[in-house]
Amino acid sequence: MEWIRYKMIVEYDGTHFAGFQIQTHDRTVQGEIQKALKIMTKGTKVIIYGSGRTDSGVHAKGQVIHFDYPFMIPAKNMQRALNSLTTDEIFVKDVSIVETDFHARYNTSGKKYQYRIDLNEISDPFKRMYTLHHPYRIDMEKLENALKDIEGKHDFSSFCASNSGRENKVRTVYEASVIKDVFNNELIFTFRGNGFLYNMVRIFVGTLLQIANGLRPADEIKRLLAVQDRDEAGPTAKPQGLYLMEVYYKASEAVKDSDHQEGIVVEKQVQNELDHSVK
Questions:
Q1: Residues 185 and 72 in one domain
Q2: Where's the Pseudouridine synthase I TruA alpha/beta domain (predicted)?
Q3: 86 found inside a domain
Q4: How far is it, in rounded angstroms, from Cα 242 to Cα 112?
Q5: How many domains does the chain have?
Q6: Where in the sequence numbering do the catalytic residues fall?
Q7: 116, 192, 193, 261: which could join 173 in a potential S-S bond, CB 3.0 to 4.6 Å?
Q8: Among residues 43, 70, 97, which one ends one of the domains?
């Protein structure tokens, strides 16, 4: 039997999942997709492999998975079948048939995450699962300067969960930026790099908000990079504001992402329109 390898880009609402990776007693994204594939194969178990795990409550717009399937189905038919069999919390955005040496996790060259902050004074019940409510003052200049200190190649031990093991904690962050969604009164952080440690983005956000609030000095990121101690950094921000946006398989794509520049242009255009309307 010749098995066919499929690559998929999947988005999901992580609110009611215990993360991506399959677990014995809890609902997960991997478990739901494998359940659908087992129906399609009439009982043959198909194991999917993701580009990485996302925690309970974390969302994805561009998670990448691969799996081997026991017979050929056109990519579009595979997409339709899975979207009809999985819960509405999961949507398969793209399907392609790839060479058998492709691996969703081991072939990655980088990832992009975003984290959304709701700045409104009153918490919006319709945002509570998709943003972190933070109705406190934000010094944007301090925030933007602190983000610049994150960029580059560093040992990020201070920004990694204490229980993550002894792995090498040196990573390169190509982009650490923030824009303000003036219509929704939200901050949108973007982090793009060649790899991320466990809880790294959420610890970034928890620390950056304290800098923006004045609870930590403006140059705190530099100190934390030097001390390499998780206990010195800020809290781990809640999972619901975090989104895995894209997974890269070419180093050039990870280093330079055109979406960032487009986002800045859109934000500036919106701000200019608002300024003109006030005048």
A1: no
A2: 8-107, 146-249
A3: yes
A4: 11
A5: 2
A6: 55
A7: 193
A8: 97
CATH code at position 91: 3.30.70.580
Q: Identify the pLDDT of residue 264.
A: 41
pLDDT at 269: 42
Give the containing element (helix H, strand E) for 65: strand 59-69
pLDDT number for residue 187:
98
Domain termination site, one of 97, 127, 151: 97
Contact 14, 95 (CB under 8 A): no
Q: Is 84 exposed, middle or buried (0-12, 13-18, 19+ CB in 10 A)?
A: exposed
Q: Which residues of the chain have pLDDT under 70?
A: 1, 165-166, 258-279
Position 41 in a domain = yes
**Which CATH number covers residue 209?**
3.30.70.660
> Which tokens is 25 given?
């007693």
Pairing of strands 132-133, 4-12: unpaired
| Ramachandran assignment for 147, one of left (phi > 0), alpha (psi -120 to 50 degrees), beta (any other) | alpha
Q: Is 198 annotated as a binding residue?
A: no
DSSP letter string over 16-62? TSS-SS--SSS--HHHHHHHHHHHHTTS----EEESS---TT-EEEE
Q: What is the tens place of the pLDDT at every residue in 18-67?
A: 999 999 899 999 999 999 999 999 999 999 999 999 999 999 999 999 99
Q: Which of 107, 6, 89, 96 is nearest to 52 (CA)?
A: 107
User: How many CA within 13 A on the CB side of residue 202?
Assistant: 22
The range of the structural domain enclosing residue 165 comes to 110-249
